[in-house]
Specification:
Number of helices: 3
CATH architecture: 2-Layer Sandwich
Low-confidence stretches: 62-68, 160-164, 182-186
Distance between the termini: 48 Å
Number of strands: 10
CATH superfamily: Phage tail protein-like
Number of domains: 1
Strand content: 15-25%
Length: about 190
């Protein structure tokens, strides 16, 4: 299992413990101003996780040795990585009334995530919140945490195979009879 998947699974587990969070998953800007007509298909409040750029470095001393551990491939994030939790709310009728509800949900999310640890990531610590100021029907409240990741250099072949099973790729193949591997050939006939 990767460090990102380890954190993602723990995040989903913790959000599942909160009855106020109706939806959780990976953030892919599914709730944005440009996407506003589609915002109403989501259930609110919702929480989504976004991984920032992870800078990997080699580990000097092996963290774990075992039959399936490739010590040469062990890595850690070379600096603390920022992970953003986007807590999303549907806009309520009166802004002043809705802020009390927003704050209560943010406190509950914080209580579940602060100090969260996993096998492959370190203590999750809140470092910043950003107040949303440009919103219409949906309020997106980013909360930024820091953590460090560990990659043991192993592959979970069962997970990879089960994930890849059933994937279908479709493509159109266009062949120019006058070109082979990008080099024009002379005298080629189809």
């Amino acid at each position: 299992m990767s460090a990102k998947l380890n954190l993602y699974n723990r995040f989903r587990e913790k959000m599942g413990e909160l009855s106020c969070i109706k939806e959780s998953g990976i953030w892919n800007e599914q709730i944005t101003e440009e996407n506003e007509p589609n915002e109403l298909v989501h259930q609110f409040p919702a929480a989504y996780i976004e991984f920032s750029n992870i800078v990997w470095g080699r580990k000097q001393q092996p963290l774990h040795q075992g039959a399936y551990t490739n010590i040469r491939n062990q890595q850690t994030s070379s600096e603390e990585t920022e992970v953003t939790i986007h807590v999303c709310f549907s806009h309520l009728e009166r802004e002043n009334d809705s802020f009390a509800q927003i704050d209560a949900v943010l406190d509950l999310v914080q209580s579940k995530l602060e100090g969260l640890e996993g096998d492959l990531f370190s203590n999750f610590q809140r470092i910043q919140e950003l107040q949303p100021t440009n919103h219409n029907r949906v309020i997106i409240w980013p909360v930024i945490y820091k953590t460090s990741f560990i990659d043991l250099g192993t592959l979970d072949e069962d997970l990879i195979l089960s994930t890849l099973t059933g994937i279908t790729f479709t493509t159109d193949l266009i062949i120019d009879p006058n070109t082979v591997s990008g080099v024009r050939s002379s005298g080629y006939t189809s």
